[in-house]
Amino acid sequence: MSPIPFLDLHHIRKDFGSFTALQDINLAIHKGEFVCFLGPSGCGKTTLLRIIAGLEVQTSGQLLQANRDISLLPPASRDYGIVFQSYALFPNLSVADNVAYGLVNRRTSRAEITSRVAELLKLVGLPGSDAKFPGQLSGGQQQRIALARALATSPGLLLLDEPLSALDALERIRLRQEIRTLQQKLGVTTIMVTHDQEEALSVADRIVVMNHGVIEQVGTPMEIYREPASPFVADFVGKVNIVAARVVAGALLFGSMQLPCDGPDREVRVYLRPEDVLARPIAAGDAHVFEAIIEKIEFLGSYCHVHVASPALDDNKLIVYLSLNFLSEQSLHLGSSITLKLLPERIKVF
Amino acid sequence: MSVVLARPVMTHPVKLKQHWVDRLAHALIALIALVLVAFLASPLLAILLQALQGHEGQFVWFDNFVDYAKTPALLGSLWNSLWVSCVVTGVAVPLAFTFAYALTRSCMPLKALFRGITLIPLLAPSLLSAISLIYWFGNQGLLKGWLQSLGFEQIYGAPGIVLAECLAVFPHTLMILVTGLSMSDARLYEAADAMGTSTLRKFFTITLPGAKYGLISAALVTFTLVMTDFGIPKVIGGNFNVLATDVFKLVIGQQDFAKGAVVAILLLTPAVLTFGVDHFVNRRQTAMLTARAIPYVPKPSPLYDRCMMLYCCIIAGLMLAMLGMALFASFATFWPYNLTPSWRHYQMGLLDAEVGSAFMNSLTMAAGTALFGTVLVFVGAYLLEKTKGAEKLHTLVRLLAVLPMAVPGLVLGLGYIFFFNAPANPLNFLYHSLTLLTLCTIVHFYTTGHLTAVTALKALDGEFEAVSASLKVPFFKTFWRVTLPVCAPALIDMARYFFINAMTTISAVVFLYSPETKVASIAILNLDEAGEMGAAAAMAVLIALSSTVATLLFMGLAWWTNRSTQAWRG
Description:
A: alpha+beta; 5-stranded antiparallel sheet; elongated; B: mainly alpha; MetI-like fold; two-stranded antiparallel ribbon
């Protein structure tokens, strides 16, 4: 990564009347990075993307792209390609005309345009669909064309505004991997807005988790998942068990369990991911082992969400992931008793 | 030691630099705002000023209104206008509701035909129904005896106005009620059936409440149309004075501009009220129906369907009788003594009375209105919907675009006299010109065109302009390559609407023509005044005929564009 960021946002703020959509956003994105803005609806992620595109105007703050101050530039003077959730393909133009839309204006020769269009269509996996109209394509195909159109002019920045939300589940998974492969091949700096954490975790180099107009955390998918910086991130990304506990004299007490913990004495919450509660392997004499009763089994196919309660946890309920095979091997069912083990190094305390 | 007070930090709203393309968009919308201010807002203000001014131009507060109230004859007209409008509303709305009910809630055959027949009154000036009624029930009418046996002395006056207005407003009332009744949710009826609800109870608990807003809207529109119509009371009103004919007499006959302006404001009041209520009601109506509603599909019921069809036959028969009589009378050599068909009235009207040139004027004006009206309205709507910046101009244009709906043609025409006839006005040279007639007609029918355009534009993806900007393609190129072709059907609709209305309008242009720029609808009025009823009927038939031909041509055009530009709809 180059030391000077490709896109640099300084103190971006956006007010809609008395409502503050974004407050003091600072973010640096490097050349060739794939960054996801992740957050619940209304967190300001789309507003931030639209400010980068010049489609909304920031209330205050500065934007630098490739060392150029773009804060006051109209959209047409900025350098980006954009793909919307609604595709926004021109319905009366053929696929080829759609892809060539930005090329025609640049006095490119007809032959060059034709070959560029063919190249782009091949790139997005739809060669030979030139003559079709957008209405004759499936949602996923339309989104691929929109992507080709956005990339046609070789922009320095690719903006994707929830590009997969309108597609069905299978198509969504396939296309997000295609977008990722394409992005790596072209090396184009990309920002994708999404509310789907799985999507963000699976494609991004870095994720920007946002909530209520502020950035909660910026990090790689692994950092975001394993080292959430705030309770919001821990709760929003992935599934988590939240248990009330206390810190007394350098020890975290919850239920009958004791773990070392820094800091003054206080009331805390323990954040524990379901996969960090193990049912095996458990050797005799292991620490942090407790007995629990199965209260509910949510069948999800190859594995199950198992709700357990334990006196060792002060009757706090936990959800753990157990494989279907394990459940049947051990002939576990409602009311069965089960031995579980905590991984103390994975526990987050806030 | 001095204390330096920290100055409060002033935050200036951040503004993006303007691309030359944005400046072009702002210049265009400023131009449209200018047109609407000059040809809509200013004439209306001129009326207001006129109403508050004395004869020497001094400001007299409400003296003119007081004078008006002290003139018993004029107060009588106000009363006449009010009660006639109420009676027509009371008769036409239930009749149209039943017709709309038959169209939407029964399985009778030939629905499209019935619907088409009820549109006949739209093809000719409203006074066609008045002329026709005179042939049926007038002094030498075919069925004068029927009328007298019902206890009416003569058709001239209130009875004629009520009857003719009922026929003339029927298509307008029907259109609103059909829309109101089409918005139904079949699930409500299924739920009611599951609970064993009687048909009557379903009607009063589901159908009527569902159509409530449509009914309110229809009643208000009917009332306003009748209140502000000029042609019918002029032709069949006899000595029965109403506000609309008063305005004409006061301004053209007596040159009493102040009183004329007062009457104009009286006419404006119900129209503005209607507009306000309608706006409110429309918002409610759309909110009421969720996107997931399943449209009601009527089930066949032989007896009920036959009753409904009989009813529709009667109404359609009346419409046809109206047109048929005008057609027949226009060919009758000398009514009622010699009914052998001849071209005499057509000859007389077109050649001797020089309606031929008036007819050409009408066609020119209608073509101009259709062409320039469609361009102006569509470009205006596009800039409003799809470009950003210049918020104040946008708000102004948005407001002025819906205002014409609330302004009766008569009032608009009067405003044009006051504004454009003023010697100090640099636009004075337009007065009496066909250009001004065309502009007046465009403004008069602006709102319906605007709403059609907005609906079509809203159906387009809102991000086209954003995508274009990111691809560095200026908005006008996207407008030309995408927006226009996609909206072609709506454009043709708008052009047809402008054309037909320009052919048939009387109320606004009646104040603005000169002998050289007289249009056909006015020529009919003049023929009627001169006692040439046959020629008047002939000319009205000609207008209806040209409207029909125009409609067919526009339909052909729509078919052709559909084939060449809408292939992608597949």
